[in-house]
């Protein structure tokens, strides 16, 4: 592994005295775990200790990064850059795939496991995200070992923190003797006192001032003072070659401890203090520094910041135009935004376009939503940047603005902006379902480069797909897929997202999912906030279709952090989440998200989103045994939504208005049409078609479709008299539900299968949990049940031989499964046939009379004799009651089941009799 010097671990100091116990402890920690933090004040020796440990471990691959104090870049920028160089990845691609702190965190941990044996991250306290990185490394690193230094300790219990204090006096004197053997004992003692036990301060005192015989440090030369005056303005490391300062002066300042080399560049340490006071910002002596920075791409951000801070607006704007696109493409969005926000108010007109552009890339929802429109006389770049910010919010009402900007840019000869504005107008019209208007605007787009030509093809393919011209869309998709590997950065991510949309629109969601997996490894889907939001949205949708519901929840959680409230993507993310809620049985959450998504979709005229919401609402109504309550107003519905509304209406009422099938149905719609025919046949009294209804578990269908239509088909099969030979199909569907974490459906199917095999226990347990269908099976259908649930309950009761029921529907009731001579109690306990026919007959008679029964009635029902005689029947009845109490004592206790009346007996505990009707 060949690494540049800036990310190599520094050599340990020539003299290392003391800290042997700390070294041993750190080494032992890294043998057991993956991360450790060395904490303590500046100059206490954290870096020296870590360097000594790394040298002792002697790893083959060790990386070093330092978190800058003032540059605002944080921990991830230098870390990801170093990790990328370690495994020869383009740094721009790594930054492009990590647009949020969550993405950067995941990317850093995974890349480190591939790139290094040991990763050293210094000065962690300069970035609040540093603590999260350290905690994540301790919890999730698999191979790499991490060493962190910082001035504050960690609060995480899993991260070992070693806190360093000052050296004791004896160790400090020993270190001073090793550092300056030529000094007199008096000079060394003075240096030890001044250092207060801090090795860094001791080294500085011995190198300049501690040996001079007095308390003052040696004076700076004029060249050194001038250099510090320049360097005091820098907030980011700058390569020495980009500075108008002689290398000898830099070395002298480094020897004095007034300058450090970090991240491949020069920075001033916090300990430099007042000796490093910067020159006045308006000083002409800064000009050589500004010119040198502007000529170095790595330092251009510093040049932009300083030019704007000096109110040199024209020069700052020129630097932005020259270097801004590269800085955005390489992930310096946050730093560039900070530089622009620090500019004086006088610079605002000149940098307004860049401020808008950076905001759109950074994607701060609150900042985007609060933007004011530019004045009417604003230039084309400013108006274009505002358009892009509105487009990032998916403002479908900004089509006229896009048209105006495209025309203005074309008049100004700005072909690239004119083309991109036309693309935005076409995309927005397409989202509104206005395909003719979208094609008109696309025809006006004149690509100014190869990337725009590919983008134009992508929009053309989307329109073709929506028109049903599959062959054209597929041909364009094949061409785009062939060109994709040649692109990099933002262009590659944008085209990859568009290609995924095309493939999904062509009914190839799994191919789109594979494309996303290859383009955006480890779930990192962004170059800008706009692409990130859309890519995460599509990834969440594809993940739902594939049935990985837990991962879909995680992706949606990441998406919601960067989605502006009230926007179309906010509605779609809510609607995607309804699928997860529905399949996982959180019906209340599903209902809330549906209401929100439907209200937003109707507000912005999203026909497809509204249709999706109504389809999901109908599926929720079917699962809840309720009638569909949402309506679409004047918006047209898709075939799938109309089919599901029809099915849900049939399931609830057993009747529905006529429904016209599609003349050219998709495979999914064909499944729904088959189910509609089966339901209607079952309503008409013909069970055979219902029994023959297919279970749509074809792997080519999306997972939610297979589960929901399969679940409905399974219910129909049960109502139609499913035989044992058909059980494997139900088993396959149940396995699919378990795999997708669709627990309610899997549990329901398991109960169906158990009931078909004569096992009532799962149904009774569901009754005790309050599941409505199970309540209907145990207690009998109610008059207000939906048609399908009532039919299903009747069918399951017939399977179990429960022709009738007696007793209150209390959840703690004992449930008598008469055909199998079992009584089920709370908690899954049950007893078998010990009481025999007499005990069952007595329990049935008491269950049918909650208020109690006299002895004559009980004798007649238990023994069948028409004449009751006390001498002949009372003792037999007492013995039967006693046996009944003992029989059911394990379920409710012997004294809590039957109470004695003046002339008979009554149940003291609720009992539900489920079985054949009395003779």
What is the structure about, briefly put?
This protein is an alpha/beta fold and 919 residues long.
What is the mean pLDDT?
Answer: 81
Strand count, sense and barrel status of the largest sheet are: 5 strands, parallel
What is the structural class? alpha/beta
Tally of helical segments:
42
Cα gyration radius (Å) = 38 Å
Gap from first CA to last CA: 89 Å
Descriptive overview:
It contains 42 helices and 15 strands. The radius of gyration is 38 Å and the shape is flat. With 919 residues, the chain is α/β, with parallel strands linked by helices. The strands form four sheets. The chain has a five-stranded parallel beta sheet with strand order 2-3-4-1-5, sandwiched between helices. Strands 8-15-9-10-11 form a five-stranded mixed beta sheet, covered by helices on one side. A three-stranded antiparallel beta sheet has the order 12-14-13.
Name its key features:
919 residues; 5-stranded parallel β-sheet; 5-stranded mixed β-sheet; 42 helices; 58% helix
Write the layout of secondary structure elements.
Blueprint: H1 20-32, E1 35-39, H2 46-57, E2 62-66, H3 76-86, H4 91-96, H5 101-115, E3 118-122, H6 129-140, E4 145-150, E5 160-163, H7 169-179, H8 185-195, H9 199-207, H10 222-231, H11 247-255, E6 260-262, E7 265-267, H12 287-294, H13 300-309, H14 313-329, H15 333-341, H16 348-362, H17 365-369, H18 380-392, H19 399-411, H20 415-431, H21 435-444, H22 450-467, H23 470-483, H24 489-505, H25 509-519, H26 529-546, H27 549-560, H28 568-583, H29 587-604, H30 607-624, H31 639-653, H32 667-683, H33 687-692, H34 703-719, H35 727-739, H36 743-756, H37 761-768, H38 772-779, H39 787-800, E8 804-806, E9 814-817, E10 822-824, E11 830-831, H40 836-847, E12 853-854, H41 855-863, H42 870-892, E13 898-901, E14 904-907, E15 911-915
Parallel strand pairs: 1-4, 1-5, 2-3, 3-4, 9-15
Antiparallel strand pairs: 6-7, 8-15, 9-10, 10-11, 12-14, 13-14
Helix pairs in contact: 1-2, 3-5, 5-6, 7-8, 7-9, 8-9, 12-13, 13-14, 13-15, 14-16, 15-16, 16-18, 18-19, 18-20, 19-20, 20-21, 20-22, 21-22, 22-23, 22-24, 23-24, 24-25, 24-26, 25-26, 26-27, 26-28, 27-28, 28-29, 28-30, 29-30, 30-31, 31-32, 32-34, 34-35, 34-36, 34-39, 35-36, 37-38, 38-39, 40-41, ...
């Amino acid at each position: 592994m060949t690494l540049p010097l800036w990310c190599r671990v520094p050599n340990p100091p020539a003299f290392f005295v003391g800290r042997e116990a700390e070294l041993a402890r750190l080494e032992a920690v890294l043998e057991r775990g993956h991360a450790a933090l060395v904490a303590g004040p500046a100059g206490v020796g954290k870096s020296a200790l870590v360097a000594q440990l790394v040298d002792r471990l002697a790893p083959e691959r060790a990386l070093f990064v330092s978190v800058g104090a003032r540059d605002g870049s944080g921990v991830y920028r230098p870390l990801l850059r170093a990790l990328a160089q370690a495994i020869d990845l383009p740094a721009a691609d790594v930054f492009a795939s990590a647009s949020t702190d969550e993405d950067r965190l995941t990317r850093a941990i995974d890349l480190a496991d591939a790139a290094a044996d040991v990763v050293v991250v210094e000065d962690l306290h300069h970035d609040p995200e540093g603590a999260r990185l350290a905690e994540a490394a301790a919890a999730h690193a698999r191979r790499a070992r991490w060493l962190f230094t910082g001035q504050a300790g960690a609060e995480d219990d899993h991260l070992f923190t070693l806190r360093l204090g000052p050296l004791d006096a004896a160790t400090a004197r020993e270190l001073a003797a090793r550092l300056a053997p030529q000094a007199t004992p008096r000079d060394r003692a003075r240096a030890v006192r001044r250092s207060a036990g801090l090795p860094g301060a001791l080294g500085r005192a011995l190198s300049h001032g501690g040996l001079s015989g007095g308390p003052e440090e040696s004076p700076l030369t004029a060249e050194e003072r001038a250099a510090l005056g320049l360097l005091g303005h820098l907030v980011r490391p700058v390569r020495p070659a980009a500075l108008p300062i002689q290398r000898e002066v830099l070395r002298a300042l480094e020897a004095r401890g007034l300058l450090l080399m970090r991240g491949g560049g020069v920075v001033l340490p916090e300990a430099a203090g007042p000796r490093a006071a910067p020159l006045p910002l308006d000083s002409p002596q800064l000009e050589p520094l500004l010119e040198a920075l502007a000529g170095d791409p790595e330092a251009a951000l510093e040049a932009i910041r300083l030019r704007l801070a000096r109110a040199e607006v024209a020069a700052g704007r020129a630097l932005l135009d020259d270097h801004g696109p590269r800085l955005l493409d390489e992930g310096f969005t946050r730093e560039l935004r900070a530089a622009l926000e620090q500019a004086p108010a006088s610079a605002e007109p000149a940098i307004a376009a860049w401020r808008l552009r950076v905001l759109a890339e950074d994607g701060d929802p609150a900042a985007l939503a609060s933007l004011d429109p530019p004045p009417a006389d604003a230039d084309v770049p400013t108006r274009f940047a505002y358009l892009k910010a509105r487009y990032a919010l998916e403002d479908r009402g900004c089509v006229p603005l896009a048209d105006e900007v495209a025309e203005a840019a074309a008049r100004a000869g700005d072909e690239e902006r004119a083309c991109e504005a036309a693309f935005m107008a076409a995309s927005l019209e397409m989202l509104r379902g206005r395909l003719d208007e979208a094609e008109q605007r696309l025809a006006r787009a004149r690509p100014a480069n190869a990337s725009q030509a590919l983008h134009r093809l992508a929009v053309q393919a989307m329109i073709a797909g929506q028109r049903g011209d599959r062959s054209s869309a597929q041909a364009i998709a094949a061409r785009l897929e062939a060109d994709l590997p040649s692109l990099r950065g933002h262009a590659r991510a944008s085209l990859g997202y568009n290609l995924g949309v095309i493939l999904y629109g062509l009914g190839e969601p799994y191919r789109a999912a594979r494309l996303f997996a290859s383009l955006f490894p480890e779930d990192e889907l962004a170059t800008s906030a706009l692409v990130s939001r859309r890519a995460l949205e599509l990834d969440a949708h594809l993940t739902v279709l594939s049935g990985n519901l837990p991962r879909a929840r995680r992706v949606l959680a990441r998406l919601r952090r960067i989605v502006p409230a009230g926007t179309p993507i906010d509605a779609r993310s809510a609607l995607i989440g309804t699928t997860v809620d529905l399949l996982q049985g959180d019906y209340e959450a599903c209902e809330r998200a549906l209401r929100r998504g439907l209200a937003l979709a109707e507000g912005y005229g999203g026909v497809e989103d509204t249709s999706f919401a109504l389809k999901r609402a109908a599926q929720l109504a079917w699962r809840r045994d309720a009638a569909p309550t949402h309506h679409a107003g004047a918006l047209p519905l898709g075939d799938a939504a109309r089919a599901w509304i029809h099915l849900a209406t049939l399931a609830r009422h057993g009747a529905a208005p006529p429904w016209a099938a599609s003349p050219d149905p998709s495979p999914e719609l064909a499944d729904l049409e088959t189910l509609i025919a089966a339901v209607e046949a079952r309503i008409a009294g013909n069970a055979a078609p219902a029994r023959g209804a297919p279970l749509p578990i074809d792997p080519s269908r999306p997972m939610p479709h297979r589960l929901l239509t399969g679940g409905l088909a399974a219910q129909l099969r049960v109502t139609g008299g499913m035989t044992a030979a058909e059980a494997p199909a139900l088993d396959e569907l149940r396995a699919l539900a378990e795999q997708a974490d669709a627990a309610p459906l899997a549990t329901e199917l398991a109960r169906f299968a158990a009931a078909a095999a004569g096992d009532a226990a799962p149904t009774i347990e569901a009754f005790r949990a309050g599941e409505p269908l199970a309540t209907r099976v145990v207690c009998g259908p109610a008059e207000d049940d939906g048609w399908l649930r009532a039919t299903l309950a009747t069918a399951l009761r017939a399977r179990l031989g429960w022709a009738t029921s007696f007793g209150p529907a209390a959840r703690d009731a004992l449930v008598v499964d008469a055909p199998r001579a079992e009584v089920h109690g709370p908690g899954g306990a049950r007893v078998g046939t010990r009481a025999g026919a007499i005990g069952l007959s007595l329990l049935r008679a008491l269950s049918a009379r909650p208020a109690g029964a006299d002895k004559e009635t009980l004798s007649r029902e238990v023994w069948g004799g028409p004449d009751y005689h006390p001498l002949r029947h009372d003792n037999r009845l007492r013995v039967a009651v006693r046996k009944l109490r003992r029989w059911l004592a394990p379920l409710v206790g012997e004294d809590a089941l039957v109470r004695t009346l003046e002339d008979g007996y009554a149940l003291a505990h609720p009992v539900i009799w489920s079985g054949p009707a009395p003779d």
